[in-house]
Amino acid sequence: MDERYGDRAGDDDAHERVHSAAGSEWNAASACTRFGVLAAGIASADDPVHTVGPQREAAEQRSQRSQ
To answer: Do 9 and 3 contact (CB within 8 A), yes or no?
Structure first.
C-alpha cells in the first residue's frame, strides 16, 4: 500500500484490472465482428445468386427507365 494515497492505492489496482478486462473484451468483440464479416463475404462469394441477381435486375430497371 502506498502511504501517499492511503486506501486509494488498492482501488486504483482494481480499476486497472477492470479497464484491462474491458479492453480485452472490446478486442475480442472486434475480432468476432471481423471474422463474421469475412465469413459472410466468403459465403456470398460461394453463392453469388443473391448478390448478382438483384444487381442485374436493378441495372435492367435503370436501363429501361432511361430509354
So the answer is: no
